[in-house]
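Late entry, evening session. Most of the bench is empty. Finally got around to the prediction I had been postponing all week. Sequence below, unchanged from the version circulated by S.P.
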Amino acid sequence: MKKYLLLFALLPIAAFAQTFSSPESVEYDAVNNRWLVGQSGSGAVLVYSPSSSTLSNFYTGLPSGPHGIEILGNVLYCCSGGRIFGIDLTSGTQVFNLNLNASFLNGLTSDGVNFLFATDFSAKKIYRVNVSASTFNLMATTVKTPNGIIYDGAHNRCVFVTWGATAPLQAMSLSDSTISTLRSTSLSNCDGIMRDQQGRWYATSWGSNALNRFDSAFTSNPVAVMNSLSSPADLGINSAGDSIGIPNSGSANNVVFYHIPVTTGLENNLSQEHANLFPNRSDDRLTIMLDYPVINGTIELTDVAGRTLLRKNADGFIFILEREGLPSGIYNVTVKEKNGKIISTRKVIYRS
């Protein structure tokens, strides 16, 4: 009888234990300081704590996937079959459900304001979703199979990786939806794409089971910076910009991290700051004061993934940036001269 009681006592622990189940995507929730992992094998999104190697449920019951996941505002959006679902980050309840009538939504990104961009892996299409209006439109039909995608506001485009042999990195113009090739590669079956705060690009490849790094302008061949992965999928980056999360959707069935090195040249360049920001833990308004005035320059506010959320002309040496409803978190403020030369790149924290 005691043996039966012991077995019964252990059952609840086993029932509620969490394990990875084909992790497909990761996203860093900067406001709540946590990693979220989309589980294509269980229809769930989990919270992962790398320091303690613990998993807990964030949301369960998605009909398929999820594959690509993306935070916009206080909502986590998920690609699930032909639909996009949205889960409130605070309550964990579903707040968005839009049927795109797509075949297989896979990659997902946002402009940081109101629009999502989703790739349809099977139908070779890219959609734009207006989340406030719950509407969508077809942006482009591609020749190559699109997979992971990332918004690049500085160049008014979305950059995406492609599936198949000799998979190129391509871009979709947001002005006219034209598709261009940024870099031809010998890589195959590329899945995820990310950009670090130093402007370098990263792509995962199932063919080589590696994380590959590209320079900011895609002028050189990619370099494998992390090998021996296992069907590495969609990438995420933390708010500090020093770690990229990589879900191994293959037999390894886990999430690993690549720690981003800061090159000496860049470190020296960014230490020569010519701007002061205050208050640097801001509730609303941010003041930027330059050491010397600029004419026809620009100021850009970007999130940790490099997405441009705000851009304004800069004439003079004192400027005011309004928060304009941005959620709390860490952002980057970059000031450029007329010729594009960077005067300063600084982090700013908006408090809740």
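Two things to note before I forget:
The chain has two domains: 19-259, 264-350.
The helical segments are 2-16, 264-271.
Will write this up properly tomorrow.
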